[in-house]
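Protocol step 4 of 6: structure prediction from sequence.
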Amino acid sequence: MSVITPLHTAPPARPAARIPLEHGGGFARLALWATRRLYGKALDPVRAALHHRGALTASLVLEAAASRWKQLSPTLNALAIMVVAREIGCSWCMDFGYWENHRHGVDPAKLQAIGSWRTSDVYSPLERAVLEYAVAATQTPSAVTDEMVSRLREDLSDAQVVELAALVSLENYRSRTNAGLGLTSQGFRDDCDVL
């Protein structure tokens, strides 16, 4: 008996989120329209947060405020966020982060090497110090040392160090929320040349 293998197979289905992502009502339609307009598709974290308007509102206010933080370079910002998402294991944040940072001009080689940041030669000493700090701050309990912060302060202002700490905390919030709700990659990375 022979087995016929189809020439084209569908991509594997994404695992289901731990809560429903479908919503009705005008507010949900407006929120999802806005994310489609900004990002090309309805964002699963917004779809999940629509179950709790207070949590959604707080997240949107925090994200809007954080979008105006500009003390760190886009590359340092991206590296801190991506390594935290990787440490926590949030495939949604990794997927969206690759796309978003690629769209903002961050070197794709730096995004691609995030999994091997300790040994990759694409990072400068400052970038490696930022990555080390972000990983240490994500551990429970925090493993940040005085030496790590002193190293950062050789090249960063105190305002930049505070922004870095806040970005790491914000990404912990995002990644832990998304991973806890079972949100997985939405295929953003497929839409850019970071492979």
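Step 5 (inspection) to follow. The first helix runs from residue 26 to 39.
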